[in-house]
């Protein structure tokens, strides 16, 4: 029944490792997003994809690489993890393009802790 | 660039009372959408209510209503008959209308609301 799901919910890893977070939505939406919420709870967009095409690519280190195998999935791969990458990462989706008359629906978040 | 300001980092209110969370935004554009999202301790981001800027009527969803003042660029959230389950961080968010799909949902810094039994 879950509309937007993410795995894993928690991720604890060592500095320098490579890790991936997966996101899937079963809403039939065309657009998916990744957001980062820092320790002060500030939420900021990282990427958006529409029908597997990259639309928004914020100023994010290129250690972060999103991959959309199909429009229901948007995965986030992070290389060479750093302490500052510790945050909660949210996936979201919307029926249409961002800025169209569409609401974004969020997944449960993945808490990443880099030691 | 658009900005969203929530000037109340924390608020608390007794159960069953009414509380209003404030939000102001800055934009020179005329067409946009505004949202309130709730983030309870479970961390899930839940949409509470949304308002289209072209609509003069304030949006309502059960106990939640907004006071949208377009000229003042203000978008406050009123929670009536507050319940313990309303305890959460509340985020105000803004997005411009666009046909290109490259607009960004901009969030405020949040207001931590505690409902006291």
Descriptive report:
The complex is a heterodimer of chains A (115) and B (117). Chain A contains no helices and 11 strands. In chain A, the strands form 2 sheets. In chain A, strands 2, 4, 5, 6, 9, 10 and 11 form a 7-stranded mixed sheet that branches. Chain A is mainly β. The mean pLDDT of chain A is 92. Chain B is mainly β and 117 residues long. In chain B, strands 2, 5, 6, 10, 11 and 12 form a 6-stranded mixed sheet that branches. In chain B, strands 3-9-8-7 form a 4-stranded antiparallel sheet, with no helix packed on it. In chain B, strands 1-4 form a two-stranded antiparallel ribbon. Chain B starts with a strand and ends with a strand. The model of chain B has no long low-confidence stretch (mean pLDDT 94). Classes of the chains: A mainly beta (115), B mainly beta (117).
Descriptive tags:
heterodimer; A: about 120 residues; mainly beta; seven-stranded mixed β-sheet; four-stranded antiparallel β-sheet; about 0% helix; globular; B: about 120 residues; six-stranded mixed β-sheet; 12 strands
Can you lay out the helices and strands and say which pair or pack?
The complex is a heterodimer of chains A (115) and B (117).
Chain A: E1 4-7, E2 10-13, E3 19-25, E4 31-37, E5 43-50, E6 53-57, E7 64-70, E8 73-78, E9 87-94, E10 105-106, E11 110-114
Parallel strand pairs in A: 2-11
Antiparallel strand pairs in A: 1-3, 3-8, 4-5, 4-9, 5-6, 7-8, 9-10, 9-11
Chain B: E1 3-5, E2 10-14, E3 19-21, E4 24-26, E5 32-39, E6 46-52, E7 60-61, E8 64-69, E9 74-79, E10 88-96, E11 106-107, E12 111-116
